[in-house]
Amino acid sequence: MSTSSVYFSPGEYLAPGVDWLNTHFHGVFKGIGQVIEAVLGVVEGALLAPHPYVLIALVGVLAWVFTHRNVTIFSVLMLAFCLFSGLWVASMQTIALVSVSVLLSVAIAFPLGVLAARVKRVDDILLPLLNIMQTVPPWVYLIPAVMLFSLGQVPAIIATIVYGIPPMLRLTTLAFKQLPKDLLELGQAMGASPRAILFKIELPTAAPTLLVGLNQCILMSLAMVVLAGLVGAGGLGAEVTRGLTRMEMGLGLRAGLAIVAVALLLDRLSRGVLQRHSPRTLG
Fold first, then answer.
1. CA atoms within 13 A on the CB side of 260
2. DSSP secondary structure, the chain, as one string
3. At residue 2, what are phi and psi to the nearest 5 degrees?
């Protein structure tokens, strides 16, 4: 018996399930895709509607108000690089994709992380799933997303959301597990409600670890969005792909540096806003 004829193909078992989902839930997937496209369209429109100089100035003003001078200067320089590299539209598309993906990832991961920190059974169920999700190569997430949502920006966002959830969920769980028990007992002894304990004690204490989780979520989401250029998501990922396929070193280098600029921009802005306006600082 030839060993070459003995193999295991997961696709043979998964393909019928995917076909069944596409047949019976096509309307659901189409509706989800339309909602995501609408939200993404609003964000992209808001970024591309004003003149680039106007948007750069607006970001600078907002950064000055909500962060501090160094973040303001840095943000303006990063946006200026995206503009003068000739990749303004692609950069704004990438920022829109990352922003929507990160917001949805955090909206899913944060409550799950809090629940996992408080209910051991939930933590026991999520832990092996998170281990698997962080072991799977990032481009693998694009395969089921494309099968269910076809090509374009929607599967890119779906894959990015799934890829960005594990770091935020893990660090949220860790942050709430490491809360000092004496602070929680003090709040309970003073008659504080669970809501007051959450917003006055737990969130301020967990803020540094949550900030790290948000940072990791942003960076991993950006990495996935770049890979999503392979499935027609547009943005800087498409420019990198174009540079590789056409062997245009200049385009590939400019797109790569623009990706770095966008990553640093989002990281510094989010870090600056949260550090200055975190509950700990405000309290």
1. 9
2. --GGG----HHHHHHHHHHHHHHHSHHHHHHHHHHHHHHHHHHHHHHHSS-HHHHHHHHHHHHHHHS-HHHHHHHHHHHHHHHHTT-HHHHHHHHHHHHHHHHHHHHHHHHHHHHHHH-HHHHHHHHHHHHHHHHS-GGGGHHHHHHHH-SSHHHHHHHHHHHHHHHHHHHHHHHHHTS-HHHHHHHHHTT--HHHHIIIIIHHHHHHHHHHHHHHHHHHHHHHHHHGGGGT--HHHHHHHHHHHTT-HHHHHHHHHHHHHHHHHHHHHHHHHHHHHSHHHH-
3. -75, 130
The answer to whether 232 and 152 have CB atoms below 8 angstroms apart is yes
Calpha distance 101→22 (Å, rounded): 23
Number of domains in the chain: 1
Enter the tokens of residue 112: 């799950």
Residue 131's alpha-carbon distances to 127, 139, 157, 167, 189, in angstroms, are: 6, 17, 21, 10, 38
Give the global pTM: 0.82
Range of the domain at 269: 22-282
> What CATH number is associated with residue 270?
1.10.3720.10
In a domain, 14, yes or no: no
pLDDT in tens, 149-200: 777 778 888 888 888 888 899 999 888 888 887 777 777 777 777 777 777 7
Distance CA 201, CA 205 (A): 6
